[in-house]
Amino acid sequence: MATAQHRAQKERPCDACRRRKIRCIRVPADSELCALCQSRSESCTFVQDPPRKRKRQQPQDNHNNNNNNLVGSNARSPASGIPSASPAQDDELPGTSLLRETLGHKITRSIDYIGPTTEYDASLLQLFRFDQGDEHVSATGSIIRRVNRNTHVTVRPSTQEESDSNIKYLDTIEGIVAPHGQALVDIYFRIVHPSYPILHKKVFLEKYGRNYHELTPTCLAAVYILALNWWSYSPNLVRLKKPNVQELEELFPKLMLDIYRRPKPSDLQAGLIFCQRPDGSSWVMMGELMAMAQTVGLHLDCSDWRLPEWERALRKRLAWAVYIQDKWGALIHGRPATIVRDNWDVRPVGKSDFPETAKDDDDEEGSSEVEKGMVIFMNLISLTEILSEILDAFFTLKALKEKVSPAEVLGRAKPLQIKLKTWYSQLPPSLVMEETKPRKLSSTGHLHLAYFCAEITLHRAILRSLDTPSTDQQLRSITRAAARARFTSAIDFVKRLKPEHLQSFWFFASKINLAIIGTFGCMLWATSETKEERDFYRQQLAEFRWTLRLSSTAAEFMKFTVAMLDDSPVFALDPSRHGTDFSDRQSNENQSPDDMGLPPGSGYAANFDCDSLNSNEYWLEYSAFSFGGVPTGHHGDSNLAASITPPDFYNAG
């Protein structure tokens, strides 16, 4: 009898480990004391009973909308039919669970990467004794986990207070959308997830299906918030009253503030999902997300980490999503990017890093295609790497202060332009704008828009260097014609958007990317040298505005650019009463962009020495890489460019 009791005690955690919610480890296995009690010179006791399962709370009729009471005693309980109980522990997980041996996806644990300059050192950490789970319990009770020979993280169990707070928040979130939680999850994985695959669908659904208390409050709220944008895409929801999304949006920042000491990968996923709302991009939040990413070690190569294969693949996808957010966030906010090449060691993603395939496509009308979304995501990553090079070459503080000749600027721009052209030419047929399937949404629109924005960003840098009276007129004509071709191509792209594109997922930068196209057109209008050229850009901008006005009924984020153009000097002022004749700008070389109503950085500020341009070499090279794809039918300076473009330029090398 005593032997059976002793065996039973060894198979469950002692009171001290149970209070700390950590694994009760005995080294050696037949030891009377666990590692924690040995380190504290205490006896292992088994007096306390295991915590009771929480009973399902009954829904309440009244709800206090005061934000200060969101986690108080009157927070709403869920009514969606999902059991409200404590999260499953490791020994309660089914044998097929994906959560066994996971590093960062258990609700009761958070991790913190141990960097090379901390109080720890890899050479000393290698001397620690690790158990079969690669964990070491220190004398202070802290847990260190070894993920490969030289990489370690500290594991922090949640306190009871934190767990209780999470459950109250989760019940509040579920109560806001009840009884529609499951339907919103279905919408998210039908429409958003295929194009933005930063969650692991099976892991999320395993947790949610067993008990939504196993999810983090941030992740559950973010999924609901974004899914509510497609409320009408569920035939079961379209006639019902839509939950108050503002209530969730106001709660979300409080949730993020609550977890800053104990972030999990799922909190990072939640922040990225929340930022994909048309008005969700925040540079301050981006800084918080970057800190989270580094805390959980996403900037590291995890290829040889002792983790489940699905988790390594998810970490790679999530890391590159952070990279995309950082670089495009830097562009649209006009800030320095946070990620630098020397501190980024993440391998490229491949098809094997995406667990879903075409077989997982949802047959319901209005769903997104899984494989197309995967290819879009991979190509957005490679495009973002080119954008990063453009930002580093032309838009760092150092680059903006440099006195660089037009020849040097063109020399830097040429390889980047070729990379952009190569990227575009290598897009698979499935990503052609015209390639849509009946009753399926297509997110190719935001990828093509990002490409045009990257092209225009490069051309803004080129025009900035050339926009001085001393620049050779032929060089000016060629570069302006190239810019004109890019601008008109971007407008043609917007005109070709179909309802399948407009109603689908657009990543966070799309709203400002559209506005950047409008700003570029306004710059070209403002710096036009003839009335004919000025009228041309005004007409193009009017068409652009009209197209966006029509499309904005299906894609509301486009209204931002419409309003911006309405307020621009192009339309807000009567052209016949402009006090400044831009054709006389050579006599106004000391006039600043602000004096002329131009956006900052649009030119007229720097004087470049063009004496080095004593031959046609740079004109020929620039026209070659800029005009290989100029559409026919454009008149003006583009004819000059076409006439001097070597026909075999793109076929060489």
UniProtKB/TrEMBL annotation:
GO biological process: DNA-templated transcription; nitrogen catabolite activation of transcription from RNA polymerase II promoter
Top-rank lineage group of the source organism: Eukaryota
Signal sequence coordinates: none
Coiled-coil parts of chain: none
PROSITE patterns, per the entry: ZN2_CY6_FUNGAL_1, ZN2_CY6_FUNGAL_2
InterPro entries the record matches: Carb_Metab_Trans_Reg, XnlR_reg_dom, Zn2-C6_fun-type_DNA-bd_sf, Zn2Cys6_DnaBD
Alphabetic keyword roster: Metal-binding, Nucleus
Domain Zn(2)-C6 fungal-type: 13-46
SUPFAM superfamilies in the record: Zn2/Cys6 DNA-binding domain (SSF57701)
Biased composition range(s): Low complexity: 62-88
GO cellular component: nucleus
Record GO terms (molecular function): DNA binding; DNA-binding transcription factor activity, RNA polymerase II-specific; zinc ion binding
Organism: Scytalidium lignicola (Hyphomycete)
Record-given protein name: Zn(2)-C6 fungal-type domain-containing protein
Region (Disordered): 46-95, 579-598
